[in-house]
Amino acid sequence: MIAGILKEAGNEKRVAMLPGEAGLLVRMGVKVIAEEGAGETAFASDSQYVEAGAAIAGRKEVLTGTDFLLSVNPLPENEIDMLDAGRVVCSSVNPFTAGTWLERARIKGLTVLALDLVPRSTLAQSMDILSSMATVAGYKAVIEAASLLPRFFPMFMSAAGTIRPSRVLILGAGVAGLQAVAIARKLGAVVEVFDVRSAVKEEVKSLGGKFIEVEGAREDESAGGYAVEQTAEYKEKQQELIQKRAIAADVIIATAQIPGKKAPVLITGDTVKAMKQGSVIIDLAASTGGNCELTENGRTVVINGVKIVGKSDFPSDMPSDASKMFGSNVVNLMKIMISKEGKFDLDLRNEIISQTCAVHNGEYVSPMLRKILNIK
Fold this sequence. Notes:
Blueprint lengths: L1 E4 L13 H9 L3 E5 L10 H6 L3 E3 L1 H6 L3 E3 L6 H4 L7 E4 L7 H10 L2 E4 L14 H20 L7 E3 L2 E3 L3 E5 L3 H12 L3 E5 L6 H6 L3 E3 L19 H17 L2 E4 L14 H6 L5 E4 L16 E4 L2 E5 L3 H4 L1 H17 L15 H6 E4 L2 E2 L2 H6 L4
Parallel strand pairs: 1-2, 1-4, 2-3, 4-5, 5-6, 9-10, 9-12, 10-11, 12-13, 13-15
Antiparallel strand pairs: 6-16, 7-8, 14-15, 16-17
């Protein structure tokens, strides 16, 4: 089997696999070809890929001369036509918005492994790119907030007097939120956390955060650990409590999202105007509308002295470690699909593979994807 590592387009600085992980594939009997300059923005040179046992080629050769294509983001649609039926494409896809792209890939006869469909189970933990990238985002969000805040995070006692610790409010206690709790606490802030899922309460407390609970939240075990849409009555109570906590906060890290839907608005414009000048909001849900009513995706805006950072691509700002984690997840996934002889085996009886496989042989395969696309 020949695997190809593609260079990412646009502002994406990550690469699907660094030389170290490419070397692991080589030792598994897979021939690896990396596109020229694929790892440049992640600080990995072509010579390092060669030292790891990979070959270097131009984009066209990688696209047409490999069996298994690896990228962080989906191929541009016009490049799908360059691929032969039966080729395997492995990347994140964003299945909730990629219906047209997936349909084109299906008609072309490609096999698409959607890394953002890897089940969030114990067995698949080492392959879960969503959790890995959320870890990076949660860490980086707090560091960004600390650099923008005109105050210290920790408490200081000095000859000049006592500096009170900053108050950080984290909305959403998923992987990104919990990582943000851990980093904010290490920096000495007082941390409060809001989430509709009561199951995360103990995790928040174990990291030193205070869990803010609004009674009456809807939970759904079939949601795979994600939050679900709440009732109007709950949202009203939630809004009142969040506004009270937000006004007292110096920093808000907003991470709350509902798969396939617009991010819930948890911070209104009125709340922002009531916050202390100099406060910072980091909105990780910006690409799906934002948790703050005034968020603008990809921009930092200042409203009444409050900085609102609309940014969902923090992992791209830490390309070295983010790429290492991404590549490690991919290698772990490939391990269950590659034989000792280095041959590719798509065993759809394996639950992890069947959940991750978006399309194969002209059919939509993943049960989750079929549900998203409303295919019976």
